[in-house]
Amino acid sequence: MNANFQVTVEEMNIERPSNVSFFDFIGGVQVLQGENTRTAMPVILIGICVSGAVGNLLVLLIFIRDFRNGKGSEVKALLASLASTDLVILLLCAPVRAITYYKQTWTLGSFVCSTTDWFQHSCVVAKTLMLAFTTRAKHTLIPTNATGPLHNPTWIHGALAFIWIVSMMFPIPQMLFASMLPYGRDTICVSEMPVCASDFMSLFYKIYPTVTFVVPVIYTVAYYTKTLHTAVNHAPRPQHQSKVILVLLCLSGALGLMLLPEWGTFTWIRLGYSRPPVGLMMFAQVLLYACSSLSPVILMTMYDDVRQGLISIWFIGTCRSKKRVPRKKCPKTEGNGAEVGANAVTNAISPGNEKTFPDVEHVWTGRRNTHVEEDQDPVPWEREEKML
Known about the structure:
388 residues
């Protein structure tokens, strides 16, 4: 493994053109020749993609069920949007990297080459801003007749619209500087910035990660740390509130730690420094997708509402599977008990069966007759009393 990895590092080095200030691969590191890397990376990415997609889909179903049952909240709306973003990253961005690592060249066309990094960065920035906006959202249920800007559902819609507009505007240079270059018989997808734009873009690549990653993560973690401390020590009923705050703190901390290598290598390359080790770049990309798979695990294990919703979905699924098994229907108790018993005995005797029970049949027939003869009346004194 180490020998192949060393060969991989040496063969990846491509001479940077003299008229560009930085040179980086788009859609995954390309022109790697190590067989172990070519096989291991797609398998790892596909495993993360499948497991994370299932988890985020379950979380989405639970939140949709809560909103339909009137148990929604502003925090749940933002967490549902977070799960949707993670699902998009795992289903649309991760397969592109898996294909690139397997093919070792670019085979997905110019449109995907121009938009893949821009789209992935938009989703990553949106995730960070969504967690930052949860600090302003309410944890309680949304009342149906509530008024005010923070209880109005349009506040959440406006916040999400703002988040996505900002998230899609900041990574636009990723789309502008993307290009496809010939590499022997094949083609590679790279990002190269002209020297004429290096001064402005150098300033931009210092502001971009600071505004979209460093400041929101530090603010969110600091806010929930302080709020958790206050809820535990001073709140009158801190149990439920502190649990929700702890979940959001764990989500923010995990996002900050797992996206730090990706943002670090991204900024390091674009500021014109020497290229980071290939192993670090690959590890950073794996952590980025693992972060999208870890979020539903945190919600399912720590968030009580999500855990209870998961149990409810499990019971619903098992009950539906049991309903498919045919069951014997109990006789309906319509009329008096004698008629029910007579019907049960009659149904128990098959028409094709020649065995009969004359004594039992006589008894039930006699009980069903509404007109009783005088000679066969078992209680004649009651009849005499009625006549008197």
